[in-house]
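User: quick one, fold this
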Amino acid sequence: MEHLTTAQAAFVVGAPLETFKKVVERAPIKPQLVKRGGRNIRQFGQAELVFLHAYDELKQALTPKSQSEFYEALRSSLKRGLAKEVVFGKQRYDIGQHLVFVERKLKELDKLTAQIDRSGKEPLIRGTQIEAHRIAALLDAGATVEDVMRDYPSLKEHQIVAARVYAEAHPKAGRPYPMQTAKAAMRAADLSALDD
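Assistant:
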């Protein structure tokens, strides 16, 4: 499994990005640090994803020290290809449901990311000239999938979902896209003064 960025990991774990960042700061995990453009970027592997998906349960059931022991045992178990149960000290913890969830979300991320063409300057919805981040901005502003399909009739629902997931996993740097389409702005404009 390739290591994921913070935004990708948040999608896989199923948490809003800002909430996910706060949990990462509190949890006893050690994401890999990689230098990119002079900055340290966190990258998350399978052990971190499984731990973070189970974190709400773990903080209820385990002390901070036991959480650290569990995390180290989890990393070791996954490296050895052992799954379903983590043994640490005198404790056993079933991780089966968390592994299944993470694996399903990783497949979903791969499938949705494959629908985005990243070969150019801006990531486009495959087979179109429509920017993924533009569609995500509309959805973030409150547009429904149906609203987007009305203004972009060539798009299918799965393409719109793929654009949102891609944008969540790969946030856009720089100036954001408008949060309304030109067609929606025209519909909302009061043009009655032009009739006089």
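User: anything notable?
Assistant: The chain has a mean pLDDT of 87.
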